[in-house]
Please model this.
Amino acid sequence: MSERNETVLITGAAAGIGFGTAVYYAENGCQVIGVDKDRERGRKAMENLPGGRGVFYYCDVSDPQSTAGLFKQLNEDNRSFSILINNAGESTFTSLFELSVEDWDRILNTNLRSVFLFSKLSAALWKKNGTKGRIVNMASTRALMSEPDSEAYAASKGGITALTHALASSLSPWSIRVNCISPGWIHTGQEELTEADHAQHLSNRVGHTTDVAKACFYLTDPDNDFVNGENLVIDGGMTRKMMYEE
Model:
């Protein structure tokens, strides 16, 4: 795979899929602006990127003022980017009967409103500068299927899939492409996986962060401009495998 000399901004870059994606872009020649609300972990993560290609910025993506402050700081630091990965999110599950309005708002604001805010501010810059920017939003297979007690999370991820094609339509006149990815089971922790875990997938394994990172890299390749407004499911076929309890 050829290297790309671009800069990517990734929210929620301190750990998990965000960090894995940051590493992959850095390995392939890109500069990375890593954004997270965990200052210590975020700084350390960006310091450890290959080639010293990472820089960290603090932001609480659920807060419009914090988000506006980030973009102001980026402008003052003369940092531009042509790729946005809206990855930050919260996956807390709570019983419907115990889910408060405050909890609902927190999850929706972190997962969904942040995508709106970052996309709007990024697109405004690209429109002004004539940049053919690319946005990838991180949805989830839980936008398409559910477990109990996931109402807020499912709503936020379903909203991301709808917001994605709306943004693609609105930003098309400026050649700004918007797609989303719905990851399935992506192993980001230290827990040991079992054969039964892997067997739930048509690919016979649980996913890695690199699987999602490669999809991001594909969707943000300037040559792949015929892919627009799509939701790419990266789940090893888990949502296509029919399973029955024995």
Q: What stands out?
A: DSSP finds seven helices and seven strands in the chain. The first strand starts at residue 7 and ends at 11.
